[in-house]
Design goal:
Strand order of the largest sheet: 8-7-6-5-2-1-10-9
Number of helices: 10
Number of domains: 1
Structural class: alpha/beta
Number of strands: 10
Largest sheet: 8 strands, parallel
Radius of gyration: 18 Å
Shape: globular
Strand content: 5-15%
């Protein structure tokens, strides 16, 4: 099987005609596994929860430092930077917090600076290529209107993409979409607004809380359906691609996503577009207590690949990538 450079795949992901090109595949047809310069298919791309103690971008160089470390690691492929929860008034609350948290909020300008600094660090400190997906979550407790929040994030992603030089890094968007964090209408509204405002890729780094792991059931948690999860993970537009959370060691999350993909086939919408799997092994080492949700990156990817490959209609067309998320600084107070 011919492996294609990830930066080339990123360009194809952004093409207007992606939906037609991938209609018969459960992953983008030009995708390849994350590779180190030596071509190791087991290499893992690092993703990060980005937390700041100040809203002053000039006093906070963590974006550059994290990007430089990732550049030195030399692993090519997609990865996500998650900045937290959008709140009313345009501020962004750190990941892992609730509305009552005393943690410092940051502005969109801080996010833009941190993201651009990550790109600068990544390119100055190494030779790998990357798709960096800038993301927030779907927590509705911040009071943000979903359509306004999705449109605002699309504009932010476009501004960052326009501010960094063309080359080895492609900028995309991301959503950590989890049914337990909002009603389905909120998440659908956010995703629909994002794809209406940007043709760049949107990585759906989602969970499938309460969804069935087998059979033809369609009920998920918190009022969501399988169709809702499918919509925010693939169905909203041809530029949406799933990089689901596969944290549990018992493999049930992988089977949930395979069931969702089969729903797409059964209903005529097509299988999920799946780029790979996200694990949280690094975050678990930083903040112990994960229990049965501490899958290794390889186990996360292998569980998802096995579950999807069990049905020829949902089998990945290309090897799946593994990305592992950790805290770019100490987790904030919840």
């Amino acid at each position: 099987m011919i492996m294609v450079r990830w930066d080339v795949w990123g360009s194809r992901l952004l093409a207007i005609g992606l939906a037609a090109a991938t209609a018969c595949s459960s992953s983008p047809t030009a995708a390849g596994p994350a590779q180190s310069p030596g071509g190791t298919e087991s290499a893992v791309t690092p993703s990060h929860y980005m937390v700041s103690n100040t809203d002053s971008a000039e006093q906070d160089d963590r974006g550059y430092r994290i990007g430089c470390a990732d550049g030195k690691a030399g692993v090519s492929g997609p990865r996500a930077l998650f900045f937290g929860t959008q709140e009313s008034g345009g501020k962004i609350r750190p990941p892992g917090t609730t509305a009552s948290s005393p943690a410092a909020r940051v502005s969109e300008q801080w996010v833009e600076r941190a993201a651009a600094d990550w790109v600068r660090g990544f390119t100055e400190c190494g030779q790998a290529t990357a798709i960096v997906a800038l993301g927030v979550n779907n927590k509705s407790d911040g009071g943000a209107d979903p359509a306004q929040a999705g449109a605002a994030w699309a504009r932010l992603v476009e501004r960052v993409a326009g501010a960094v030089p063309a080359g080895r890094v492609t900028v995309a968007g991301a959503l950590d979409g989890e049914p337990s964090w909002s009603k389905p209408a909120w998440a659908r509204g956010w995703v629909d607004a994002f794809v209406a405002g940007s043709r760049r890729g949107l990585y759906a780094v989602n969970s499938a809380d309460g969804c069935p792991s087998e059979g033809t059931g369609e009920t998920c948690g918190n009022g969501w359906t399988v169709g809702d999860v499918y919509h925010v993970s693939t169905g909203a537009a041809g530029t949406v691609v799933a990089l689901p959370q596969i944290y549990r060691t018992d493999g049930i999350q992988a089977r949930q996503w395979a069931t969702i993909s089969r729903w797409g086939v059964r209903t005529g919408a097509g299988p999920l577009r799946v780029a790979g799997a996200l694990s949280q092994a690094t975050a678990c080492r930083q903040k112990p207590g994960c229990g049965r949700t501490g899958n290794s990156p390889a186990d996360s990817r292998d569980q998802l690949d096995k579950a999807l490959a069990a049905d020829p209609a949902t089998r990945p067309a290309e090897p799946l990538v593994a990305s592992d998320i950790g805290w770019a600084s100490a987790p904030p107070s919840p």
